[in-house]
Amino acid sequence: MKKVLNKKIPPQSQKLPGSEKKMKPQPVYDYPEVKGSGKMKGKIALITGGDSGIGRAVAVLFAKEGANIAISYLNEHEDAKITKSAVEQYGQQCLLMAGDVSKENFCKKLVQKTIDKYGGLTTLVNNAAMQVEAETLEELKTGNLVKTFQTNIFSMFWITKYALPYLKKGSTIINTSSVTAYRGSPTLLDYSSTKGAIVAFTRSLAQNLIEKEIRVNGVAPGPIWTPLIPASYDAKKTAQHGKKSPMERPGQPVEVAPCYLFLATDDSSYMSGQFLHPNGGELVNG
User: Fold this and answer.
1) Residue 234's domain spans which residues?
2) pLDDT in tens, 209-251
């Protein structure tokens, strides 16, 4: 396992939103030798940003554990087809929905399409996000600022709003934040701000839904090897990704996905409004 997880990252760069297929080395999103135990048998999971990165790893792990999957993605059709194939190899169904979660109408449609396909929804994973570097506040373009907030946090309000009528007692909502919500990032001012907003949204929604017995939790990953990295940074910075973490390497999506599985199942039945921190050993106040 260590040989897989410690592969050196060569310099590389892509255009947003990034393609997992073009990454070198390929992110590790599944351990096929590890068998599922049926923890999500009969569950239906909607995962935004499920075509690649953390979203793909979560989709595949949920499928391995018995869930049918619906994923949304922007326009990375080739990556999405790979995720669909991986889900189907575990005997589960996978609905693909391409579109922009920064638009409220699409958020409404993806929930409805999930219901039309599967007849219900038990697990919502709000995971889609974008980021664009700006060295200073003065360089931060208003268009990028607005788009980042619409994609990263407004979408969570909209998707959750339209999903709630279908979420019953025992359902779970899991939101993806980031280590940057806790320690900031000098060149990702808007992105970090949205991730902080996600923490507050998760904690507030958890209290709001406690009487309905719908649990709301989140995951705040550190530096993970996903398409967002080469698509956000230049080749030199990409090659250094994760080296400042205590473990001195980026995490792999397969190392993050179990956090989502834990929060999606009864294993975490006494948790709501909480965050898990797969971040390579960085201590944060979370």
Assistant:
1) 38-276
2) 999 999 999 999 999 999 989 988 989 999 999 999 999 999 9
Residue 166 annotated in active site: no
Q: Is 1 within the bounds of a domain?
A: no
Alpha-carbon radius of gyration of the chain: 17
> Is 193 inside a domain boundary?
yes
The sign of the CA dihedral 243, 282, 229, 138 is negative
How far is 180 from 162, CA to CA, in rounded Å? 28
CA distance 48 to 116: 17
Contact (CB, 8 A) for 123 and 163: no
- For residue 222 the two structure tokens come to 């550190």
Q: Which of 29, 90, 162, 191 is catalytic?
A: 191
Question: Residue 194 is part of a domain; what is its CATH number?
Answer: 3.40.50.720
What integer is the mean pLDDT of 83-102?
A: 98
Task: With respect to residue 17, please indicate whether it lies within any of the assigned structural domains.
Answer: no
